[in-house]
Amino acid sequence: MARIPEQQYRTHFQNNYQQAKYYNTSRTWDDYEPAYKYSYDQYETHAGRKFEDVENDLERGWDKTKANSRLAWNEAKEAVRDGWHHIERALPGDADNDGR
Predict the structure, then answer these.
(1) In terms of C-beta density within 10 A (0-12 exposed, 13-18 middle, 19 or more buried), how is residue 51 classed?
(2) Is the whole model's pTM more than 0.85, yes or no?
(3) N or C: which end of the chain has fewer CB within 10 A?
């Protein structure tokens, strides 16, 4: 499956995460980057599925993947969702048919 090159994806979020509605000013890029990476890595595994359909699986895997991030799943979830939808929007058509 064609997708956004990882460095392009990472750069997008590194340049924009502080403008996201879920951004917490007490957190840094080092907290958010693992969430975006997790989303990028997991998207291919669950390609074609809606974020909401795999959210529970993603939640179960977060603690093993978060590295040094201080984000608990309830904080990381929105960054993971944002990354997921960013990939969907970059794919031809509406990858999961959810209109986003």
Answers:
(1) buried
(2) yes
(3) N
Residue with tokens 């939640």: 59
**What DSSP string runs through 27-77?**
--HHHHHHHHHHHHHHHHHTTTS-HHHHHHHHHHHHHHH-TT----HHHHH
State which amino acid sits at residue 26.
S
Give the up-direction half-sphere exposure of residue 75: CA atoms within 13 A in the CB hemisphere: 16
| Of 93, 20, 99, nearest in space to 39 by CA | 20
Res 100: pLDDT: 45
Q: Closest by alpha carbon to 57, among 42, 67, 37, 68?
A: 42
Please answer whether residues 28 and 51 qualify as being in contact, where contact means their C-beta atoms are separated by less than 8 angstroms. no
When pLDDT is averaged across residues 18-32 and rounded to a whole number, the result is 97
Task: Give the span between the Cα atoms of 77 and 80, in whole angstroms.
Answer: 5
